[in-house]
Specification:
Length: 228
Amino acid sequence: MPRLREKVVRVCFLLEKRFGREDSGVTPRGSALDILVATILSQNTSDRNSVPAFRALKRRFSQWELVLGANEKEIAQVIRGAGLANLKAKRIKLVLSELKRRRGKLDLSFLRRMPTREAREFLLSFNGVGPKTAAVVLNFAFGKPVFPVDTHIYRVTRRLGVVSEKTSREKAHDVMDELVPDSEKGSCHVNLILLGRNICKPRNPRCLECPLNSQCVYFHKYFRGSRT
């Protein structure tokens, strides 16, 4: 594990050298509830689809109370560009309804004062909120030291050999939480997404252009091996 931590620190350094520490529009912004809904919309689709859907939702409904009062069909029509619109409309309504029932208002700011583990468990108790969604809210709304793992990060970290091929995506959150220094969790998360989108693609990864190829098991096993 110490050697893996050293490798991850090196990975974070190389990524920051390549991409910097800016979020480059990768992560949602706004209140914690904004980020939660935006992340629900991003499930099983790309930002190209989910971001316009979130903006359309905010234009149509100026307050989350209005979304809570709307019917699911109306919400689904507004967010249809995000895909799985009926399912996501139902999830959004359920989250808002349950939050209002438990807390009396549509506000997640109280999570800032909660210990990270308790805040995470609170979010995970909502139907449709998984480890990635909870981690995105906690990290980017409150700066809590948690590491979200999305599809890109799961692929990249497995290719790097940081996460085992046998490790599930849910377990990968725990692995990366432990390996990535708290001070680097936000930046490294964003930069791994940028790498996965632009270089370490699912098919035909651009390994020769990758700033991490010196650290990468996939590169050494498949790419370099094919050249010898």
